[in-house]
Amino acid sequence: MWLFHLIVLFPAFLAFPSLCFGPTFYARSPPNQAGQLVDVTSSRPLLPIHVTWEFPLGTWVENIAIRNDGDALVTILSSPEVYLVPTRPPHRPTLVATIPDALGLVGIAEIGIDVFYVGAGNFSTTTLTTTPGTYSIWKVDLRNVAPSAAKLSKVTDIPEAVLLNGLTVVNPVKGILLIADSGAGVVWSLDVNSGSYAIAINDTSMDPPVGTTGGINGIQISGNELLYSNFGRGSLHKIPVSRKTGQATGPAITLFESPSFSIDDFAIDFQGDVWAALNVASQLDFLPDAAATSTTSTNATTVAGTNDSSSIAGFTAAQFGTSERDLERGSIYITTTGGYTQWLYQNWTTGGTVSRVDVRSFLI
């Protein structure tokens, strides 16, 4: 997600320059053993970005999940809405759900097939501030119904939350979600069947910088580890967790950290590589082996996007496509806000988008 306390964080982020499908053919630079970010300059041209759908100006597309049929479900932060965006023509979106008593939506995760959970609350994209105590988790059930007829129900309020963000599934059998709280710097666990919740992980690597609410952001389960980004610190971490409860079973590791690396959410491929959406830089970056169990540090190579783009700007999340054509192309779908500085000054040149980057050629 994002832009929390932008005026505080924005000057530092301006300094930033800059699935695997089959065997990998890229050259890997030696990792930085200190766990610091190493930018790897690629001799390859940046990959093109294909806009699947552009929403109106002033629409912040926050997060994305890919359905079993290959279409995308996206959450909107600037309004409390979930849209289905077809990834194959015609692409026109369908409004799936509107969450009551919330300004916007944050993360989304799927348990089973076509049962999605979304976070809702009062984060104002006008003032760029959060209202603690307003966050909740909702169920969006698309089983055996048209998208416009989705069944919506509240799972629970989490009044102790400061600013909920990314969601991931740690125990699909018992229905246990993990939920990042960017403002509190913790991870909540939630039993979606009973509605019971508790703090599962509280680690200093998740804390926001002093005076901000931009701490832990995107979270993804990989094996028995939880990977998570910290937007304010510009860092990526992992920590071993119980797949039954989501609680930590060991210490956290910092894979890299650089104040100018505006990592938001990210996707993990089958080989343990991370594909990171950079919000301020408007870039998709490739971090080889970041999710591999033995990895303690990693490098980053920009694959697509530029920090001066006025047409596709403000990358917030990334997920791999699931259709046959997407698998052939190595397609990653990204969500965008319309631009970091554009939201700061409320002066947009583009709406938020669902866009596609085909990465197969990057690996050949």
| Topology as a string of helices (H) and strands (E) | HEEEEEEEEEEEEEEEEEEEEEEEEEHEHE
Rg, alpha carbons: 18 Å
Dominant shape: globular
- Ranges where pLDDT stays below 50 over 5 or more residues in a row are 2-41
Helix content: under 10%
Give the strand line-up of the largest sheet: 1-24-23-22-21
Strand percent estimate: 35-45%
- Overall mean pLDDT: 89
Keyword list:
364 residues; mainly beta; five-stranded mixed β-sheet; four-stranded antiparallel β-sheet; 3 helices; 5% helix; 41% strand; globular
Topology readout:
Blueprint: H1 6-13, E1 38-39, E2 50-54, E3 61-66, E4 72-76, E5 81-85, E6 94-98, E7 104-110, E8 115-121, E9 123-124, E10 129-130, E11 136-141, E12 151-157, E13 164-171, E14 176-181, E15 186-191, E16 197-201, E17 216-222, E18 225-230, E19 235-240, E20 253-257, E21 263-268, E22 274-278, E23 283-287, E24 299-304, E25 315-320, H2 324-329, E26 331-336, H3 340-345, E27 353-358
Parallel strand pairs: 1-24
Antiparallel strand pairs: 2-27, 3-4, 4-5, 5-6, 7-8, 8-11, 9-10, 11-12, 13-14, 14-15, 15-16, 17-18, 18-19, 19-20, 21-22, 22-23, 23-24, 25-26, 26-27
